[in-house]
Design brief:
This protein is α/β, with parallel strands linked by helices and 273 residues long. The protein contains 9 helices and 9 strands. A 9-stranded mixed β-sheet has the order 7-6-5-4-3-2-1-8-9. Bound molecules: iron/sulfur cluster.
Length: 273
């Protein structure tokens, strides 16, 4: 089953190393959401999960609430995910997430967990490991796992995609990764990666609706990509969906960065399966 993503805003209040998102001030309106949802509804049974992404999607929290209720009312019976850095999470938003346990909140582990984040039951933490900052990821993991111990939160380890990993970086990642996984398990937590595997690193082939309502056949539309590739990705219900190729990835991110994404992903697969 594939996922369906809505990019509710391209605005973000952070500046993460290696962020793949093309950021600007555009946001999705309720009218744009409703129109896109109407177009997609005949296909909705194909999808088991609806994801709300940005930028930072909590800038558009009222739209997320509206979209969630709208899809439920129309009969969508799958689950939901919201990918956030958590900086805008407050009492009101965390209460809403607590009340709606079919929404999984995907936190960025680059930002420390707050009491509001910890109060949410259904959550995972995406820990990005950058090739030149592997030690930092290890210490972040140690403190994060200590704080999360006793909760049902899971940890998702993500080697940074589409940036250069040298052979020395890959060797170090191979050495450190089993220690990270052991520590997660020792703290009684689980590793989310087991449930998440894609055809291409980082992105997925499910439909993605941009802020302006354009529907693409991959959520790679959130990155800066050449016009002709973006054009190929526009969804046409009468045609078979275009699937991004390795050559496209090389054109978008460069050869070395694409090879690096597969190489670091291969190491992850070796230890997490
Ligand atoms: S929080 Fe997400 S969208 Fe914002 S800069 Fe970081 S990775 Fe990019």
């Amino acid at each position: 089953m594939e996922s369906l993503s809505f990019l509710v805003t391209r605005k973000c209040n952070a500046c993460c190393l290696g962020c793949p998102v093309e950021k600007n001030s555009k946001k999705m309106t309720p009218e744009v959401f409703k129109k896109a949802a109407g177009v997609l509804f005949p296909f909705i049974s194909k999808y088991s999960v609806v994801k709300f992404f940005g930028g930072e999607p909590l800038f558009e929290f009222p739209l997320i609430c509206y979209a969630y209720l709208h899809l439920k009312k129309k009969g969508f019976s799958g689950t939901f995910e919201v990918g956030t850095n958590g900086l805008l999470l407050d009492k009101q938003k965390s209460l809403w997430f607590r009340e709606h346990t079919d929404i999984q909140v995907n936190f960025n582990a680059g930002f420390s967990p707050t009491e509001y984040a910890l109060s949410i039951k259904n959550a995972i933490w995406n820990l990005c490991v950058y090739p030149k900052h592997i030690d930092t990821a290890l210490s972040t993991l140690f403190s994060l796992a200590n704080v999360l111990s006793g909760t049902a939160h899971r940890i998702n380890i993500l080697p940074a995609s589409y940036c250069l990993w040298t052979p020395a970086d890959l060797a170090k990642f191979s050495f450190i990764l089993p220690k990270m996984l052991d520590y997660i398990l020792k703290k009684g937590l689980s590793v989310e990666n087991i449930n998440r595997k894609g055809r291409i690193p980082l992105f997925n082939d499910g439909l993605a609706v941009d802020t302006d309502g354009t529907i693409y056949t991959s959520n790679i539309c959130l990155a800066i990509i050449p016009k002709h590739i973006k054009q190929n990705l526009i969804f046409n219900p009468k045609k078979e969906s275009y699937k991004i190729t390795v050559n496209d990835l090389i054109e978008i991110f460069g050869f070395d960065n694409t090879v690096s994404a597969y190489a670091s992903g291969r190491i992850l697969e070796k230890y997490v399966s």
